[in-house]
Specification:
Elements lengths: L1 E5 L9 H15 L3 E7 L6 H9 L3 E6 L12 H4 L1 H22 L3 E4 L2 H4 L8 E5 L8 H9 L2 E4 L2 H11 L5 E2 L18 E6 L8 H11 L8 E4 L5 H10 L6 E5 L3 H10 E6 L9 H8 L3 E5 L15 E3 L4 H12 L2 H18 L2 H17 L3
Parallel strand pairs: 1-2, 1-4, 2-3, 4-5, 5-6, 6-7, 8-9, 8-11, 9-10, 11-12, 12-13
Length: 373
């Protein structure tokens, strides 16, 4: 089967919205499908994308070019700025439409609602929804009506779209994780608290920093590592300085995949305090696969993976007090950390590997392609 995956941001940005489509491409290609990934042609590419290309020679990468306005705007701003993101997809619309017509795909998978409106009506299409929009927008309403099938990465995301747009039934297919890559290793736990992810306001890192400030009174040598980058980094660094915690908190930037497992395994507690309207965090699955004890929020899609007290701990969104309490509880209880980590790994192996996710996705693709054929 010839499958197109349209994700222009994958060449210049690394986030869950880029990693997931690339992993879908990888595992669908392993099943014998002919996969084309279409991305934006840029002067620079992320190390993640370049490595992915080298390791997946059986995937064809097709490059699209911005031909109209705004091509001088830094590309990463198009991911974090909602308006600029929409503009990028509008700019690429005609080229994408012509590209799909020429390629004659059996099905195209898109991962952003404004991208879906550019795919020709003659091409079968599946739209994957990664989060819930803050407000109702016309372009999203059009997108959910023109695709052949809607897929959400969590029940929370599906419910949010159904409520906003009165959509047709949305299929829920959870993302997966490479459980062979993210594994537990015996190593010294020289990091007390680890955060991994984009540094944007809704990821809630500011509440983690305030929680650490409450903890250092009793744990003056607390070691905290914040991995990732983003537009909110400067504000987080200023907050760290204002609270005089530079010796406790280190910002280390983006952590490549080949180092990520090592950081998870070195950490006693992984804290993911996001309050964004999204599905199940990729970093939550990665950390759980490495048998980490995870503290995350009881909102959005996270509670679809975490059973509080069994394979992780849940806190209220934006609650530095609860985050501090849960961290302290885990730092003082090695056996609880180990129990949570082992249970989390078992849950990954049961339901959250990429092989299981792609099994469900492959079945859905066959249903879409075979309709009216």
């Amino acid at each position: 089967m010839k499958i197109g995956i349209y994700i222009p941001t994958a060449s210049f940005f690394v986030g869950g919205g880029e990693i997931v489509p690339l992993m879908q491409a990888k595992y669908l290609a392993k099943r014998g499908n002919k996969i084309h990934v279409s991305v934006l042609k840029t002067s620079t590419q992320t190390e993640y994308f370049k490595t992915f290309q080298k390791e997946n020679k059986n995937i064809k990468f097709d490059y699209l070019k911005m031909r109209l306005f705004g091509s001088d705007i830094p590309y990463d701003k198009r991911v974090v700025d909602h308006k600029l993101g929409h503009e990028m997809y509008f700019n690429l619309g005609r080229e994408v439409s012509d590209y799909c017509t020429i390629q004659k795909f059996d099905v195209v998978i898109t991962h952003y609602a404004p991208a879906a409106v550019s795919i020709p009506a003659s091409t079968k299409q599946i739209l994957v929804l990664h989060g819930v929009p803050e407000t109702k927008e016309i372009v999203n309403g059009v997108a959910v009506r023109v695709v052949d099938k809607l897929v959400a990465v969590s029940k929370y995301v599906a419910g949010g779209w159904e409520k906003l747009y009165n959509t047709p039934r949305i299929e829920v297919i959870y993302n997966g994780i490479d459980s062979n890559l993210f594994t537990s290793e015996k190593t010294s736990k020289d990091i007390d608290i680890l955060y991994v992810g984009r540094l944007i306001e809704v990821k809630g890192v500011q509440f983690l920093i305030n929680a650490v400030w409450n903890l250092v009174k009793n744990y003056p040598d607390l070691r905290v590592v914040i991995g990732g980058n983003g537009p909110y980094e400067e504000s987080l660094r200023k907050l760290t300085g204002k609270l005089s915690m530079e010796k406790n908190i280190r910002f280390i930037g983006y952590i490549p995949d080949n180092n990520l497992r090592r950081y998870y395994n070195r950490s006693k507690v992984v804290v993911l305090p996001s309050y964004s309207k999204e599905g199940v965090l990729t970093t939550l699955l990665e950390a759980s696969s490495c048998e980490c004890a995870v503290v995350t929020t009881n909102c959005c899609g996270m509670k679809e993976f975490v059973e509080d007290g069994e394979n992780g701990l849940l806190v209220k969104p934006k609650s530095s007090k609860e985050i501090a309490e849960k961290i302290q509880y885990l730092l003082n209880n090695d056996s609880i950390r180990q129990k949570l980590g082992k249970n989390a790994r078992r849950e990954i192996e049961r339901n959250w590997t990429w092989d299981k996710s792609i099994d469900r996705f492959k079945k859905l693709i066959k249903e879409v392609v075979n309709v009216n054929n």
